[in-house]
Amino acid sequence: MSVSPVKRQKMESALDQLKHHTTVVADTGDFNAIDEYKPLDATTNPSLILAAAQMPAYQKLVDDAVAYGKKLGGSEDEQIQNACDKLFVLFGAEILKRIPGRVSTEVDARLSFDKEGMIQRARRLIDLYKEAGIGKDRILIKLSSTWEGIQAGKVLEAEYGIHCNMTLLFSFAQAVACAEAGVTLISPFVGRILDWYVANGDKKTYEPSEDPGVKSVTKIYNYYKKFGYKTIVMGASFRNTGEIKALTGCDYLTISPKLLAELSKEHVKLTPTLSVKDGSWVPLSTLTGIKMGFEHLPPRGQGKKKELYTSYIWDDFLLIVSKDAKQGLIIMLILHQDIVSSRPAKRFFFPPETLEMK
């Protein structure tokens, strides 16, 4: 008599398996997506806040931010800036109700080359969170990984106990400078590096393990583990789930709702490709002369030499900084409509290409 086969237990989704090896972070300002995928942490940026702020479900947050700006008074520009800061914090506060960990809130990208400006704005955001009853231990302040941004992060961490997430990071030299500065976390971009290689090289497709962005994050991770840096590596800016799965084992990965959804539907076995133990044995030497790499950048318009911070292109870095700044300015335009009106106006909206995310 044949024995009935044992019913096989359904394999966990790729997303659930990933959570066993890596801290999964949601890269979104959409509360519904956070509720659905249950990440530990969440990251936001001006693009994400702008997209969410135009949804009817979040209009109360916009109204509250406008009311706050008006209440503080001052010039029209001051009211708009205060309302913008408040809006970012209101979104962050709502997100924190839905996650057990931390939320990343970004400093205005227009301050990317202004060390003191970044420090002041970061402290202002932390004060706003404090007013909302939220301690700085639950906040990561996002700063651009320019030399000035890294030095601002160093001061914020050492003198004010403010945890920083260094973004717009494309290279090994930037990553080492961040670790030396003692910042809490870095967000090296994966997809943007792939984009550059596809746009500027003959090869148009890459296996995940050979993806230039994946290899960049892998090298950074291994260097940190080999030399005992405490800074967290959080891979960011993914183009596909293959890149994510190829970085299983990385400290953190911040992932868009679209890719979280794809991972939740995949049922393939994930094996960690990164580990502290393996990273400590990788043959890497310490990098010196970091600041020099930041001081000898090609002028804008001469970036197609892969000279930015030894591995990426200056033009693209400035493009992304200006893009984040643009999204912040559009948010200010939305707020401006209400600040200058005696009552909320019908808000204008922006085409999808305006809201394109990194």
UniProtKB/TrEMBL annotation:
Its EC number is 2.2.1.2. InterPro entries: Aldolase_TIM, TAL/FSA, Transaldolase_1, Transaldolase_AS. The keyword Cytoplasm applies. It is an enzyme of class 2 (transferase). It comes from Anser cygnoides (Swan goose). GO terms for biological process: carbohydrate metabolic process; pentose-phosphate shunt, non-oxidative branch. Catalyzes the rate-limiting step of the non-oxidative phase in the pentose phosphate pathway. Catalyzes the reversible conversion of sedheptulose-7-phosphate and D-glyceraldehyde 3-phosphate into erythrose-4-phosphate and beta-D-fructose 6-phosphate. It comes from the Eukaryota. The lineage of its organism: Eukaryota, Metazoa, Chordata, Craniata, Vertebrata. Keywords: Cytoplasm, Pentose shunt, Schiff base, Transferase. Transmembrane segments: none annotated. One of its GO terms (cellular component) is cytoplasm. This is Transaldolase.
